[in-house]
Specification:
single chain, 181 residues, alpha/beta, Rossmann fold, 6-stranded parallel β-sheet, two-stranded antiparallel sheet, 6 helices, 31% helix
């Protein structure tokens, strides 16, 4: 039995702060500080998979939901793709994502990627969802193009009752799919 929400065919996920975060700061500080710290050459030892992420992704895959990473990166495009794919591999998530994309460093970039992917896969916007931890880079671009969005609650996210939020990634299953997943 479905909840009051429509189930989704495709879910776009931000990466930093949504799937993994810095071990040191978790959800207390925007995770992009890692990119700004020039003393950190390899980010992998400083990151951890957020609890519950792997199980949630496995359930979505089992249900046939298409999962796509859209992660904004400050590096040149080829380097950004290399880095995001290395993180996906580091966390052994390769089999859980259909596509992985490093989006550009402007707010509308994820919306542009979402539109292109939905068009290519012939999926209507009503069957898509964007999940992230940043209003300007994740939530707002999705809503601006007519795609539903959720924000993971963090200490650095400004609280706004008008926004749809979740406490943990597995809440996606409760909100958009049957309880018995």
């Amino acid at each position: 039995m479905k909840n009051k929400f429509t189930s989704k065919s495709i879910i776009f996920f931000d990466a930093d702060g949504t799937l993994w975060y810095p071990t040191k700061t978790k959800h207390t500080v925007l995770p992009h500080w890692l990119y700004l710290d020039k003393s950190i050459k390899d980010h992998h030892p400083h990151l951890m998979l957020i609890p519950g992420v792997e199980n949630t992704l496995k359930k979505l895959k089992k249900m046939g939901v298409i999962t796509v990473i859209l992660s904004t990166h400050p590096h040149e495009k080829n380097e950004a793709y290399k880095r995001i794919n290395n993180k996906v591999k580091h966390f052994n998530l390769e089999e859980l994502f259909t596509e992985v994309h490093a989006t550009r460093e402007y707010h509308e970039s994820k919306g542009e990627y979402i539109i292109e992917i939905l068009k290519r896969l012939k999926i209507p916007k009503t069957k898509a969802l964007m999940v992230g931890d940043n209003y300007l880079y994740d939530y707002k671009p999705a809503r601006a193009i007519g795609v539903d969005a959720l924000l993971v609650e963090t200490d650095y996210m400004r609280r706004d009752k008008r926004l749809k939020t979740i406490k943990k990634l597995s809440d996606v299953l409760r909100l958009y799919f049957s309880e018995g997943c």
